[in-house]
Amino acid sequence: MKGRDAEQMAADYLMRQGLVLRERNYRCRFGEIDLIMSDAGRLVFVEVRMRTSEAFGGAAGSITFTKKNRLLRAARHYLSSRLDTEPACRFDVVLITGARNPVINWIRNAFGES
Question: Where do the coiled-coil regions begin and end (predicted)?
Fold first, then answer.
C-alpha cells in the first residue's frame, strides 16, 4: 500500500464516520496536510501515517516533534490564507498498520490543540 492509498483509505473511513472532505494534500512552504475535513462545524486537519508493522514505534512513532510543528504551521497558513474567520479546529491522526489486513486507529484531537 502506498501513501496515496493510505490517505484514500483514511478519507473513506472518516467520511463513513460523518466527516466531510474539504481538501486533500494542502501544501505550502511550511509543510503538507494530508486531509482537511469538517466535523460538526469544526475544521479538522488530518495526518495519515501508515506502517506495515509496529516495529520501531509503528505509525504513531513516525510522528516526530518536527512533523507536528510543520503540521501546526501549515494549518495556520491554511487558516490565514483560505478563510476570513478562524473556525474551531482540531488535529486528528489516522494510523494505519498492516499490509494485507490494515487496521485503522483514529485519534481525535491528537495534539491537544483546539
Answer: none
